[in-house]
Amino acid sequence: MYRILGVFIALMLVIQIPASAAATTPVPVIFNGSEIDVEALLIDDYTFIPLRDVLSLLEDVDIAWDNDSKTVAISHKAIQMKLIIGEVTASTEIGMGYEYVWYIDPPAIIVNDRAVVPLRFLSDVFFARIYYENGRVFLNFPPFKFEDGVWYENHWYGNHYGWREILDSSKYKKVDDVIYCIASSPTEPLWASLTALLALHGNGRFELLRYLDSMVVSFSVFNGTAFYQRETSPLGGRTSIEKKEIHGELISGTRLGHDDYSYGSRIDVVRDNNPNGGYYLQQHIGHWSVEPDAVYAIGFYAMAAPEGLVRDLNLFKETYGYYKLYDDGTHELIEILETEFK
Predict the structure, then answer these.
(1) What domains sit in the chain, N to C, each tagged with a CATH number?
(2) pLDDT digits (tens, 9 = 90+) for 133-143
């Protein structure tokens, strides 16, 4: 199974801290605006929180404990995750034979017979908004606000954060009374970030539906299926269009069209100012659509410009066009598009 490295690079040795050795300081927790009967623990300058206690506050989350292997199994809808006490990784399957791995620094430990994890783990995995104020920890699930039937996002206005109404955009798609959105884990490097599909319901209910994949740059929802455009190389220059069912069991995603084509971006060909000359591609993502009969997208033969550097200009011009994509590994060329030079 392939592994995509995520979040932290953990350089420390793994040490499990027994309850008797852990010097802890309790910290009050405010969950979605209300103080709860769960305390965070300050241990060696790191804030930990009891995993079962806080996840039990969320909908549709099941937690199982294997005492022999010291493993916590977390199940949330189509999300299956494993975390081993004392190890610096946690993993989840995301389909297509891939397993996403989070690095946890410091690792989860046992304190007073409870598994506790670094607070940052909750923001990375469940996209919680976390902040500290007056000696208390504030947890918001989700990192949005629902008020008087309207969802708001926390937006940076240049010199401060403030709430603004969520509207249709490349990040938010409204279908009936549900707003779908994508959120990526705060990962370094960015190509390792994992993107999840979230749902904001008109009655104020929030759902973490499914992890999609890494480097998702645009998406759409149609008939219970999530379609998304993602970068397939950390060096850029190539994107694919893929789809996953939103509900049900964890399934592999399906890549649309030819594997050796790049889809979904309008392209400008830019002359390199380097004395050696040459061209590179300037991509404008989101140039694709989901229609009742198929997915349509701008595309080109990727090997004409590997990693965004044009190797065969004529081949690029011959294949740069508007395509109808199928999920059996084929496509249909609708029309050749004129190449734009800058």
Answers:
(1) 2-141 (3.30.457.10), 238-342 (no CATH)
(2) 888 888 887 77
Residue 289 banded pLDDT, cuts 50, 70, 90: very high
Nearest-angstrom CA–CA distance, 179 and 155? 17
CB atoms closer than 10 angstroms to residue 226: 22
This prediction's pTM: 0.77
Q: What is the rounded CA–CA span in Å between residue 6 and residue 256?
A: 26
Spatial separation of the C-alpha atoms in residues 194 and 183, rounded to whole Å? 8
φ, ψ for residue 110, nearest 5 deg: -105, 125
Nearest by Cα to 104 from 43, 46, 29: 46
HEC profile of the chain: CEEEEEECCCCCCCCCCCCCCCCEEEEEEEECCEEEEEEEEEECCEEEEEHHHHHCCCCCEEEEEECCCCEEEEEECCEEEEEECCCCEEEEEEECCEEEEEECCCCCEEECCEEEEECHHHHHHHCCEEEEECCEEEEECCCEEEECCEEEEEEECCCCEEEEECCCCCCEEEECCEEEEEEECCCCCHHHCEEEEEEEECCCCEEEEEEEEECEEEEEEECCEEEEEEECCCCCCCEEEEEEECCCCCCCCEECCCCCEEECEEEEEEECCCCCCCEEEEEEECCEEECCCCEEEEEEEHHHCHHHECCCHHHHHHHCEEEEECCCCCEEEEEECCCEEC
In the predicted model, is pLDDT for residue 12 greater than 50? no
Q: Could you tell me the two tokens for 7?
A: 């979040």
CA nearest to 291, candidates 247, 195, 225, 338 = 225
Token pair recorded at residue 315: 């081949």
Which pair of tokens denotes residue 108?
């989860």
Q: Are 262 and 300 in contact (CB under 8 A)?
A: yes
